[in-house]
Every structure is written in structure tokens, then in C-alpha cells.
């Protein structure tokens, strides 16, 4: 029963629609009706501005972190579920949130939060890489997909040369697949040269 409860809690944490609630509470705006209509940080930046975008980014990251750290709570300490499983469940909740008609974000920030909780060096690497690639490409979608590849390369090298962590490698592959799948429309626009570019960096 503990495992069922902790999985449900991880999903509910991931389902918190930060962008929707911040938009409605503080800006009287439903961002689903603006920009790409996506409930993620990128559309928040585009629709509500940098301040709101940063807040939503942090909240979405913390959802993944909180879900991954749930086994540390005394109530759940008896469970033997791997924390990365909870992180993945939270990412699924972010993509398909019960609190927003199962239409959520694109898995990037919440995936980062999972990695922050489980293996913080890869989070730092990807955070630095994010700003570098974004500065060069000006496209958040392209940058997000590149981050998945960077994470996959890092984790593979980590397993080969430092420490074997198959669960981390498998989750990186899964999260990267999520990101690529959720950006399939962006891939079409990138190929067509019509993908929007950021102007604030």
C-alpha cells in the first residue's frame, strides 16, 4: 500500500500545473490560450514575461526534485522503490496533469529536477549547457533536445569510466525520449525554419 501511495503522490506532485496557476492567480491569464498553449516554462516566458517564466521554471524543477526525494520521508522509509521511478512518474504527471485535463508541459524542467535530486553534477552540467546552447541557437526547443543528448552522453561515459548506474542510464534514455516526443511539432518547425526564437538572451 505504501508503494501505491508514494507513486500516486509522485504523480500528483508532477501534476501541479505551475504555469496555469501562476498565470491565473497573478496575471489573470490562462496561458493555454496564448502562445503555443503549452503549460511549460517556455510558453510562460513568452506569454507572461521573464519573472513569471523563472518562477514557473523553478517550481517545475522542484516538482521533480520533491518526488524523487519522497523515499527520504520517514513514512515512506520502509519502501524499496527506486527514487528514479518516482521521478519518472512525476515527469509523466507534468506531461499529463490530472489538474489540467491531462495537457501539460514538455518534460524538460521536471526532468531536470529529478536529476538534481538524484545526481546533481549532471544537473549542473545541463544547466550550464542550456544557456550556452540557447545563446548560440536562440531556440528553447532545440536547446532542450540537445540537453537530452548531452545527458545521455554524460551518463554513458559515467557508467563506463566511473561507476555503473544502470537505473540512471535507463532513466536518462527514457526522459530524453519523452523530451524528443513532446517536441515533435517543434522539430517540424525547426526543419521548416519557422521555430520561434528567444529575444531575451
Helix content: over 70%
Q: Which shape, going by the Cα principal axes?
A: globular
Structural class given helices, strands, pairing? mainly alpha
Give the helices and strands as they follow along the chain.
HHHHHHHHHH
Residues in β-strands, percent: under 5%
Mean pLDDT: 92
Main sheet makeup:
none
Rounded to an integer in angstroms, the radius of gyration calculated over CA atoms is 17 Å
Description:
- The protein is 70% helix and 0% strand.
- The protein has helices at residues 2-15, 18-27, 41-48, 50-68, 83-95, 108-118, 120-137, 140-161, 166-182, 184-192.
- The N and C termini lie far apart (48 Å).
- 44% of the residues are buried.
Task: List strands and helices in order, with pairings.
Blueprint: H1 2-15, H2 18-27, H3 41-48, H4 50-68, H5 83-95, H6 108-118, H7 120-137, H8 140-161, H9 166-182, H10 184-192
